[in-house]
Amino acid sequence: MIRQDAKVILDIVDLHARVEDQTILNGVNLKVRAGEIHAVMGRNGSGKSTLSKIIAGHPAYDVTSGTIYFQGENLLAMEPEERARVGIFLGFQYPIEIPGVSNLEFLRVSTNARRTQLGLEELDTFEFEDLVNERIKLVQMDPIFLNRSVNEGFSGGEKKRNEILQMALLEPIVAILDETDSGLDIDALRIVSSGVNQLAKPNTATILITHYQRLLNEITPDYVHVMNAGRIIRTGGKKLALELEKSGYEWLDAEPGNQGGLNHG
Amino acid sequence: MNSENSVGELVSQPYKYGFVTDIETEKIEKGLNEEVVRLISSKKKEPDFLLQFRLKAFNQWKKMKEPIWANLGYPEIDYQDIIYYAAPKKIEKKESLEEVDPKLLETFDKLGIPLSEQKRLSNVAVDAVFDSVSIATTYKEKLAEYGVIFCSIGEAVNDYPELIERYIGSVVPSNDNFFAALNSAVFSDGSFVYIPKGIDCPMELSSYFRINSGDTGQFERTLIIAEEGASVSYLEGCTAPMFDTNTLHAAVVELVALDHASIKYSTVQNWYSGNEHGIGGIYNFVTKRGHCRGKKSKISWSQVETGSAITWKYPSCILQGEDSIGEFYSVALTNNQQKADTGTKMVHVGPRTRSTIVSKGISAGHSSNSYRGLVQIGSKALGARNYSQCDSMLIGDQAEAKTYPYIRSQQPQSNIEHEASTCRISEDQLFYLQSRGIGFEEAVSMMVSGFCRDVFNQLPMEFAAEADKLLALKLEGSVG
């Protein structure tokens, strides 16, 4: 939902970043207002996933210049856990397995960290079980997965549902979903998408990182951005995604204004 | 956000038991010779059989060589530069706690082991050993109602000489190895437990060993006997002050389980481990062995080893009685410059004997952590079974983990399984937890506890939570 008078909650300004010696982001600008859904598309290696990890604070990437403001604060000055507590959520493309750590306990500690930040009481084991049993319905996940180790032995689809369950518990302000559709069959895709749609609120925003149009049939974006060589080279509405679906990314190479990317020195 | 450094800082929490109690002690001059052995024995007013036991051990020790096969590497120990006996002066024989030096009670209070009637732990009987001497044992009278004997080994030598004479050295012979021989010659004090036939010991028994003097070796000796159908759960804890010299600790523990008896022996070892440059710390050379003498007897070792500069320790089970069971559950954490070479021996003698080994090694900093284990199936151990699992976790990229599993079977009709794994706490795992609002240190400690859970589940309830906390504390500042 686009409302020009809505507050900008995430503001990425001329962001440059690299990993080791390789430049990955080359001047990204993106403003996200409350209530909006953004889709970021692009080829493999265009920098989409990197952008999402940098917003969440992955230590492997160095931001060389530029800034990210989250609700007016300098997000880059915060540790990853602080970012999560103030309301940044990254849904992982490949959720990480953590053997030995109970999923339920992990979800509880994580939920309480966010609640503490919000000035809410921490939930004890029983209260938390009530909450998780309610939220788990949203993703139609079998509660048996609560008693396993975090993501260990989960199928691709179960891992993604677990991600959206975390999102439902943490109630972030900005949710970035990195290739949430990859590895999902059509039924799972619908369940996960419907979960995301239900969690979208007028005061929150969602950024979908995806290769494919099919996710955007389920979650309608307000803006579609195309990334190439570490920058956003084109922004449009939902139609842009359909265009991409039809003609691929080849045509982008010939576009004016797509100069100065990585491939061009 | 440099994750290597932060792991490093996380492990380097200051040692909170490093204080020294200022108390007058009586010591025998540094050095070891036959005269010193005789003096120790006479100070303790021991019967002749024990003096002979000590002298024989001393003579054997003189001919033995310090073992060098372990993956430890430490400077040569000068055995003549060690004090072999130190005792708080006002000790003598105490009839009640009121007579114990308040400074000593205060020391144990500070260590979280209150001894006085009002404050003592409600369900655990404690034998508190300070340097070479046991200063108090709680709940003795209550235990006596059940016929359970729980006292210092020094008292047991005088009060129950026939039990001591029958069992001492019967599981770990005095010439078993260099350090066991040294202990047999000069052992100071330790705990003695006797559970009579058919008795299920009504409370947890616990010994707390405190080294206080800097240049004094600690040589305690523990003997636990469970008669037919008896059972007991025993826990030992250890701490020492911070000195920048190394203190030698060479203990011997012997367990005997008769028919249908069961002994559970848990250790939380937190001797001072030296500073981050490897200066100071305890050299911990321990021989622990249990003898499942009776049929269907069971001996279970659980250990959480976090302290000491050097750890050399292989709690073992001789499974002689048919259908007897041996277990070894271990968490060994090393950080900074610590070195640990630890594991177990399961010697299957009787038919249908079973053993389980679960070892979790965590290495952080520049430390080195080795698992060394032997599973031996003798020719008569028809249908014997062993399951071993040895997992190592590396934190940072400077630490070392090694596994030396030895398997020898002379019985084709036996079943031995061995699983091993090595993992590292990865940056991605840490980031995943952090990206869910979980702080760095908590994330590491969650993963470490998760890694150790199989072992913690085996610890007595009261101590499982403590062990968890202890690991978190030891790791503080070690991850980055």
Question: Please, could you describe this protein's structure?
Answer:
The complex is a heterodimer of chains A (265) and B (480). Chain A is an alpha/beta fold. Chain A has a single domain, classed as 3-Layer(aba) Sandwich (Rossmann fold). Chain A contains nine helices and twelve strands. In chain A, the strands form three sheets. A six-stranded mixed beta sheet of chain A has the order 6-9-10-3-11-12, sandwiched between helices. Chain B is α/β, with parallel strands linked by helices and 480 residues long. Chain B has one domain (3-479). Chain B contains eleven helices and 23 strands. Chain B has helices spanning 3-10, 34-43, 48-63, 102-110, 140-144, 153-159, 161-167, 178-186, 427-434, 440-456, 461-475, and strands at residues 25-27, 86-88, 124-130, 133-137, 149-152, 191-195, 204-210, 221-226, 231-239, 246-257, 262-269, 281-292, 298-305, 310-313, 316-319, 325-334, 339-348, 354-363, 368-377, 385-394, 400-409, 415-424, 477-479. In chain B, strand 3 (124-130) and strand 4 (133-137) form a beta hairpin. In chain B, helix 2 (34-43) runs antiparallel to helix 3, helix 3 packs antiparallel against helix 8 and helix 6 (153-159) crosses helix 7 (161-167). Classes of the chains: A alpha/beta (265), B alpha/beta (480). Chain A binds chain B through residues 56-60, 79-81, 83-85, 89-90, 92, 95-96, 98-102, 105-106, 109-110, 113-114, 117, 149, 166, 170, and chain B through 1-3, 423, 426-429, 431-440, 442-443, 446-447, 449-453.
